[in-house]
């Protein structure tokens, strides 16, 4: 029996889709970065971003560049949801959705205004989400730009270039704050700071391309007139930065094609080893900046994080790994629409966790702990000196503890005191400190606890986990205190 199949074109409902595409999960800084991608792909040398308050308690946002500009047909295509595929290998575009989804995530009315170097005519196209919803159709307004639109474009470039303008912004400033001028100014400042910090990392290689010959020219980015300075997370100019691995690896795609992924593993200096305090501050050392930095075409896609392989821990805060790939590996690295997230293939994760990451993490941990040991290496400056002295003076009054048995294999001791029998950990000679018989430190404790009762140097004692965040935040800053409680 032959099956009859009927086919028909079934376009989506314009109003529902237009509203749904607003909920792609963009952050403000991620949305603006998507627009900067387009500016760089257009050959821009200068990108200006403005966030400004306007009449009525609203704000408007614009991204202006001095790239090659677009004619009316090109503007129309760029504003199409799922614009025509680009065959330029240097393009940062992927799905032809970024401009629209990034803009509509915060703005209900957004426009592209542009002129090319071959024409002084300025053209525009505008999507108005409210209009799309009202008529349930993809109605695009377009034509010659207005004097107001041209005035904004001319503020930044009087020749070729493009302006993406957001108006009717409803998702950046809370409604309750819109009519409070001081609150609006304060929130704009916060967004300005967050955006500047984000762009300094995401586009670091374009802001400072000297180490990346494949980048054709430098791009200057400004936020409300202030230059965005490149943030090098790997501190490559610091003499004490150590490169653990620097190697290209060939990957075979499911399609049979091959691609190159370059992995560079760095351990940055301890705070006191930076060339100056400004360099140390710019390094942004902390749990939130350790792990993998994944770049697509020299643009940071995601990171820093450990991609679920590990959890961030203080003693790995100096470990930073650069993973760089080109768009030909998108198939296996699963880049999302927002280009701000990625899903590493499980085989890649396995390779990283067995071949690369342990090398970098072990070196980072050693360097981190060297810094801790340099603080407490002298018994006279030990932060536990006073505590050990105080406990030692009371040792005789505490009653005897009888060690019933010792299990060297499990490193445990069974003890007996007036409360009965219990099992505690037996510290190995290489673990505690002889000058700290009662309160000592261990590099790690089972289950990551901060402290536990132990037998140390044949005495009852407390072992403190020097890898625990509380140790850094309380004990080390208190090293000059006679007794730490």
Describe the 3D structure.
The strands form 3 sheets. This protein has an 8-stranded mixed β-sheet with strand order 5-4-3-6-2-1-7-8, with helices on both faces. Strands 14-15-16-18-19-17 form a 6-stranded mixed β-sheet, with no helix packed on it. Strands 9-10-13-11-12 form a 5-stranded mixed β-sheet. By secondary structure, it is α+β, with helices and mostly antiparallel strands. The chain folds into 3 domains: 14-227, Heat Shock Protein 90, CATH 3.30.565.10; 242-376, Ribosomal Protein S5, domain 2 (2-Layer Sandwich), CATH 3.30.230; 379-478, no CATH class. It is elongated and about 90 Å long. Helix 2 packs antiparallel against helix 4 and helix 2 packs across helix 7 (181-202). 28% of the residues lie in helices and 27% in strands. The chain contains 13 helices and 19 strands.
